[in-house]
Amino acid sequence: MVNIIKRMRKLRELLWIRNGPGAIQLPKEVTKISVEFHKKLIGSQHRGARHFWHDILPRIKYRNPALPISVTRHADPAGPAYLHIFTAQPTPQTAAIPPSSTPQPTSSTPEATANDTPTHTIEIKDFHESEILEALVEKTGAVVLTTPPEEATEMAEIEEFKERAEVDRVEVREKLMKVRREEELLKLARGEISAAS
Amino acid sequence: MAHPRSLLAPLGRITAPSIASARPSLPRLAALPLYQTSIRCKTTKAPDARKRKARKHYLQSDLRKADQFSLVDAMHYIRAFEVGRGATSSKYEMHVRFRTLKNGPSVRNRLRLPHPVKTDLRICVIAPPDSKAAADARAAGASLVGEEEIFAKIKEGQIEFDRCLCHMDSLQKMNKAALGRVLGPKGLMPSTKTGTVVTNVGAAVKSMVGASEYRERDAVVRLAVGQLGFTPEEMQTNIKAFMETLKKDIARLNGTPKEIHEVVLSSTNAPGFTLNGEFKGADSVSARVLSGPL
């Protein structure tokens, strides 16, 4: 089992999934989001899309837990990179509720029958992840949630801690290397190892 | 006039924290390479080996200071971490930590979860290929049945199964074939101790098809308890079933001191969340929200 201190530190850093870019409340009419891009970062055309998946989609999913989000990664480097937004068409109430209110929806996908053509399709090739998010917010009219001040200070603390850890790491490393070098020199002087090695 | 030394000592104490607080103002090394690997540095000398007594228990942490989550909260986070993954490819895992002796007997068993996690288990049955037992095993869903040809295959290193059973009558033959060297490290070697040497092969295979196996290693039992698409209610029944079987297993060890210390829910791509035993917290989202498709 992972050491408890490590685990707790990771949980303290969970704040990243609550706040930051992507902490948005999507309107009820949005029934599904799907992203499509290439598997690898060849030529970096799909880099933004992939970063969007890794950094921003978890936040969106956390804030909109009932919203189905799918990611399709194809194997064609020249292939497309799209962000599809599905919305319930004229009557938002009837189409938006089924996916969340059916008691056993694990096997069936009710939203697929409601509408299977995306309302908005955004080409996201060569987009930075923040641009993709901007486009999403603009198209759907989502509410961007603000970070509560106490969580912001805690996040700043974590950031500072990490920075200091990096500085400390360098310091300790230098010290350790120095000790090792001295030991090596001593060994050399004593003739325990040959100078060639 | 006071002795100069008495002044020095408090001064030394004053300077120490001021150095520490000055640390963040060191030149920020923002341009540090990210691949900077961490190094471990032993700060304390190991005590004399003769003096130190070997610990008999596994170290236990104090959980009162730990962050604990209700099941729904943990699933809320985990589903966010697993965004874009397949509902059947990612799994929920449980890690159950015991308070136990290092050298005591360990928990090891199989159980059938109410909602099975994995259904495509490949089972190998060692039995004479033209016997009734072999026919039973095939009917129950075993993928490999036989004796000599299986031994030959295993010795070549072709292991195309996840579980191995042995019929009681074939036990001697199997032991003669000396498969322990190949199967032992993988934990696949049939033996009476693990309940994989059986007389009624058909029933055993049947009970194994939907079942998962778990064992205690370093005071922790790990088990995949659900697919990512499961609802909180399904997870709850699975977790309850698992914990109850674990308690029965502990009771069967006849008074060996062993208690459940910590229960952690994790998944393929998410960190571990210590569960507090509640289904829902005060301000967690409704379970229905988490029941939908991913």
TrEMBL record, chain A:
Gene Ontology molecular function, alphabetical: structural constituent of ribosome
Disordered: region residues: 92-117
GO cellular component term, pick one: ribonucleoprotein complex
Nucleus keyword on record: no
Annotated ranges, domain Ribosomal protein/NADH dehydrogenase: 41-143
Residue ranges with Low complexity bias: 92-114
Subcellular location, record wording: Mitochondrion
Keyword entries, A-Z: Mitochondrion, Ribonucleoprotein, Ribosomal protein
PANTHER family, A to Z: MITOCHONDRIAL RIBOSOMAL PROTEIN S25, SMALL RIBOSOMAL SUBUNIT PROTEIN MS25
Protein name: Ribosomal protein/NADH dehydrogenase domain-containing protein
TrEMBL record, chain B:
Stored PANTHER family: 54S RIBOSOMAL PROTEIN L1, MITOCHONDRIAL, LARGE RIBOSOMAL SUBUNIT PROTEIN UL1M
Superkingdom field: Eukaryota
Keyword vocabulary terms for this entry: Ribonucleoprotein, Ribosomal protein
Family note: Belongs to the universal ribosomal protein uL1 family.
Stored Pfam families: Ribosomal_L1 (PF00687)
GO cellular component terms attached to this protein's record: mitochondrial large ribosomal subunit
Keyword Cell inner membrane attributed: no
Name this protein carries in UniProt: Ribosomal protein L1
GO molecular function: structural constituent of ribosome
Source organism phylogeny: Eukaryota, Fungi, Dikarya, Ascomycota, Pezizomycotina
